[in-house]
Amino acid sequence: MSTIRTLGLLLLVPLGCATRAAAAPNPVAPPAVAESRLAASPAAEGRVLDRTLRVNGEGRVMVRPDVAVVLAGVEATGKTLAPTVADASTKMRRMIDALAKAGVAEKDVQTTRHDVQVERPWVDGKPRDITGYTVVDEVRVTVRDLAKLGQILERVVAAGSNSLRGLTFERDDPAPQRQEALARAVAAARGKAEAMARAAGVSLGAVVAIEEAGAERPIPLAKYRAEAIVAADGAPVTPGELEIGASVSVTYAIR
Questions:
Q1: Is 180 helix (H, G, I), strand (E, B) or coil?
Q2: pLDDT digits (tens, 9 = 90+) for 109-122
């Protein structure tokens, strides 16, 4: 009999503990649900408050060029390579000397090309013996005194240059004009944004972001072939004007 009572007590204890554990509330689940609802609220509110207006603006500045750039070269042909290269080198030295005597600084003469072309006929898809060579040397010349441009080109031709091409007029330092063009572009963007805001019935706020859409190279409004300048003695040089432009993208807050 004493043995049976002891087993009964051992069975009652686990059952009571299990009942109390099942009835105890879970303190973790409710706060997790509430926290999830609160985290979703700021994101939704941020999407409503994110109100911006993005516009593009362009600015243009006209300026007189102050330098001219021309590609001047010599060409020599021959049946053997060494004498042909020597002939081209002699012509190039004479041309560079003529530029120096005309007042062009050494830093304004830059070699841009040295080509050796081999003349070799092909017969039935096979190359034959070399019949000759063509050597082309070219320099990029920057002329800073535009009043002397015509005379300088005449001297270059007289010294042996048989190739003048790519004459352009540029601005040696376009930075001040580019800054002015940027300021005009920003002002144009502001005017466009104000007009759009009025039409939409909103108020224009502060600038949120501003970005240059890409630097533009100066656009020459007048180009002339070198042959036209040296065709007649004393022909006037008319460099015209350059158009320096800038583009920006501006984002404004609206309310």
A1: helix
A2: 999 999 999 999 88
pTM recorded for the entire structure: 0.63
Q: Where are the domains of the chain?
A: 52-64+174-254, 67-170
DSSP letter at 125 equals T
pLDDT tier, 217 (very low <50, low <70, confident <90, very high otherwise) = low
Output the six-digit token pair for 244.
């320096």
Q: Which residues of 148-173 are buried (b: 16+ CB within 10 A; e: fewer)?
A: bbbbbbbbbbebbbebbeebbbbbee
Q: Which residues of 43-63 are buried (b: 16+ CB within 10 A; e: fewer)?
A: eeeeeeeeeebebebbbbbeb
Secondary structure element (H or E) that encloses residue 164, with its range:
strand 163-170
State whether residue 39 is helix, strand or coil: helix
CATH class, 67-170 region: alpha beta
Helix (H, G, I), strand (E, B) or coil at 216: coil
Q: How far apart are CA 21 and CA 72, in angstroms?
A: 98
Segment (H or E) for 53: strand 52-63
In 64-148, DSSP assigns E strands to 67-78, 109-119, 122-123, 126-127, 132-143
CB-based contact 163:135 (threshold 8 Å): no
Torsion region of 68: left, alpha or beta (phi above 0 gives left; psi -120 to 50 gives alpha): beta
| CATH number, span 52-64+174-254 | 3.30.110.170
H helices of 106-248, in order, are 149-158, 175-200, 226-230
